[in-house]
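Dear support,

I submitted the protein below through the web form. The confirmation email said the job was done, but the results page showed an empty box. After a refresh the structure appeared. I'm attaching both so you can tell me whether what I see now is the final result or a partial one.
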Amino acid sequence: MWTKSIAFPMNGSDKSQDNDGFTKTEHEYITGIPASFADVTREDILIASQSGYTANVNVDILACNYNGADYLVDEGTGERYDIKRSFKKNRSMIISLTCERRQRGKL
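What the results page shows now:
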């Protein structure tokens, strides 16, 4: 059932400065979360266009693994996806995250 794995950022982040004085933020990740990537449906595309974003992929995970993060990272490719919508069906342990691929989303 699970075809890939994803990573979620933890709540805290380490902020430091580089040599030029710019703030550099480093996140720690919760890794190894089993996930299943699926194509978006027509309904997802319509809701996304009405809300002003583009739906690229649906990611299904166990609801107990979701920490309310704003984005996720595909561990296989390193691409980042912004989580735009989460949906949990009645009496199901699976939550579906509708995501939009970030520009320059590679880590």
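Response: this is the final, complete result; the empty box was a page-load delay. The beta strands are 4-17, 23-38, 57-62, 71-74, 79-88, 94-106.
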